[in-house]
Every structure is written in C-alpha cells, then in structure tokens.
Write a structure and sequence with these properties.
298 residues, 10 helices, 5 strands, flat
Length: 298
C-alpha cells in the first residue's frame, strides 16, 4: 500500500551489537547472585529461541578457554606453551565417537591408554620395540607428533542427540623443559668460557674475549624455537583428528557378529600387524639406510 515504510534491514555487525546489548540488559534485570546454573542458562536460552546445543557448545568453549594456558610475558612467549589444545562440536553419538577415537589413537597415533578418568581419557606413547620402530620409520607416512607429547587428554561430552563436544589437549611440557635446559646449558657454557678467557688472558681489548659468551647466549636464546615449532605441529595434529571426526574420516570399524576373539588371539593379531607394518617400512628404506632426522630450519 502507498505510504507504508519499507522494513529497514540490519546488517550483521549491527545485529551482533543489538543481540549483545539486549543480552546485557536482560542480564542486568536478573538476580543472578554468584551466577546461574546450567539448567537456568538453558531455560533462558530456550525463552529467547537459542537451541540448547549452541548454548552447551558455548559453555564448553568458555570452560576450555578458562582452563587453557594463557601465554603472557616475554619469558612465556620465548619458552613456548606447556599445553596445546583443540575442541569442536562434531556429529555423532558419544559411544561411537569414543570407539572411533580409541581405535585411531591406538592404531594411527601409536598411543596407549594411561588412565581412564570419569570425564576424560589420558593417553601416552606406546612402549616397546615395535612401537618405537613404527614411529622411527614413519609407518603409514605419519609423523606421530602426538606420541612426542608427554600426555594426550581426550574428552567427549554429549550436547544433544547426534552431537558431541570433543576436547583434545596435549601436554608438551617435556619438550619445553628440554628446550629451556638446553638453552641454559649452551648460554652458561658460553659465559663460562668467556669468563675463563677474561680471567687468564688479560689483553688490551677484553671485549674480544666476551665473544664466546655472546655466541653462547645467542645460540641458547634460539633453542626454544624448536619447541615452539613442535608444539605447533602437535596443535595441528589435534586439529586434524577433529577434522577426521567432523567429516566422517575417523570412525569405528564395523564389528562382525559372532563370538569375541580371545585375548591371546587379539594380542597375536596385533603383534602380526605390527610386524607386517615394520617389515613393509623396512623394505621402503634405501640401501644406505634412512636419512638422519633433520632439525627444523630457522
């Protein structure tokens, strides 16, 4: 009809500001006290039309953010992270995702269960000759970055039917400590050599004798860069696991009907599989032997 106003469109940036401000106004009228429970928050979300799955996802992401390590300060940035993590909402039921992750961690990442806690499972590198050879030879074309971490934590939480929140974290404090120890040792050696030269070889230009100390400190300062790069590789490996879950590339193997094989048969089959993998990798090694591992380029 003539004279009617055309509805005004709100762009995305304005929409986010409006929703955020409306939430602040509504929260200001609530008597939350010390806070609200998860049930109250879900009820509030239902009143404004926000599906529970998105609210639960936001809550778990907030929890993960609060527990994640915040790198602050020059020393923390130089030393690198102690823990890296990744989390995502993926389709699937908890039992299916748990089985898929357990099979993947065991077979594809060469990890073994360390502890089963009520809310998460802890993994660490498999021990033994075959596991070490599997990682050293890179069986399957993998780098096995997760096995280099001190510990891997896996948590799967149901958000709603058909969706779960998966949180993965890796404790890489072992490589951080090794990098810091190496940096201190190299820098200390350089300073010690410089001190000895200054004490026993006095010359007109003592500054020249301080060169070993400067070189040692310079080399030592660069050593933690190796750890930071390794932590980034572990972070990427965690994200790749979530990619596989999200796109259905990581899923549990089909279980055939029939009696379950005995523990002896399962162990024998796993041993035969490990021997086959190692044998295949050995056949691919050049006659001169595998090239020595190279350090990351600066």
């Amino acid at each position: 009809m003539a004279g009617e106003l055309t509805p005004k469109r709100v762009d995305r940036a304005a929409l986010e500001r409006i929703i955020q401000r409306a939430a602040e106004l509504q929260a200001g009228e609530m008597d939350a006290g010390e806070g609200v429970t998860e049930q109250d928050l879900l009820k509030l979300g239902a009143e404004v039309g926000i599906p529970g799955r998105f609210l639960r996802q936001a809550m778990y992401e907030e929890t993960s953010r609060g527990g994640a390590q915040r790198v602050g300060g020059a020393f923390a940035r130089w030393a690198g992270p102690k823990v890296v993590g990744a989390s995502r909402v993926v389709p699937g039921e908890k039992g299916t995702i748990d089985r898929a992750l357990e099979e993947w961690m065991t077979e594809a990442e060469a990890l073994a269960v360390k502890r089963r806690l009520p809310d998460r499972t802890l993994w660490h590198a498999q021990q033994g000759l075959f596991a070490q050879m599997k990682r050293w030879l890179g069986v399957g074309g993998k780098s096995y970055h997760l096995a280099r971490a001190l510990e891997i934590s896996v948590s799967v939480t149901t958000l709603e039917e058909g969706y779960c929140h998966v949180a993965l974290s890796a404790d890489v404090s072992n490589t951080q400590h090794a990098a810091i120890s190496g940096a201190v040792a190299v820098a200390g050696t350089g300073v010690l050599v410089a001190s000895v030269l200054v004490a026993f070889l006095p010359v007109a230009m003592p500054a020249v004798l301080l060169v070993p100390g400067a070189i040692g400190v310079g080399i030592g300062a660069g050593i933690p860069k190796v750890h930071r790069r390794q932590a980034a590789r572990v972070q990427l490996a965690l994200e790749q696991v979530l990619d596989g879950l999200e796109h259905g590339e990581i899923r549990p193997k089909a279980r055939l009907a029939g009696p379950r094989a005995s523990a002896f048969v399962r162990i024998t089959d796993e041993l035969k599989k490990s021997l086959t993998d190692v044998a295949d990798a050995v056949r691919q090694v050049p006659p001169g032997g595998p090239p020595p591992p190279s350090l990351p380029r600066s």
